[in-house]
Write a sequence for this structure.
């Protein structure tokens, strides 16, 4: 089972310090070595919104007023169960502290 683990922007989140970076580095190395982590990265908070209505597609450059809801980072993991994905999410939140993440199962090949 694949899960997309997304992290939302947080007003209370501080810039990462050396300790956080070291802990996150160990976590990423562990998941990579275990073959669980398929991809990870940060996302540009500005983004581009595309909205379609009939034959028309409207393109709007960000950032958007709902920036606090924006996804700023992601990890794609392959695990045996939903519970395993949740446990990885708990470990991640334990490292980075207060904030919000969303897990969604990825369907398809």
């Amino acid at each position: 089972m694949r899960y997309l683990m997304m992290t939302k922007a947080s007003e209370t989140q501080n810039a990462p310090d050396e300790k956080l970076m070291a802990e996150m580095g160990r976590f990423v190395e562990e998941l990579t070595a275990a073959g669980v982590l398929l991809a990870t990265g940060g996302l540009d908070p500005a983004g581009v919104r595309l909205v379609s209505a009939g034959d028309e597609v409207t393109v709007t450059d960000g950032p958007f007023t709902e920036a606090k809801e924006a996804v700023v980072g992601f990890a794609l993991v392959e695990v045996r169960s939903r519970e395993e994905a949740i446990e990885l999410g708990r470990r991640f939140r334990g490292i980075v502290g207060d904030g919000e993440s969303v897990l969604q199962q990825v369907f398809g090949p």
In short: The helical segments are 18-33, 82-96.
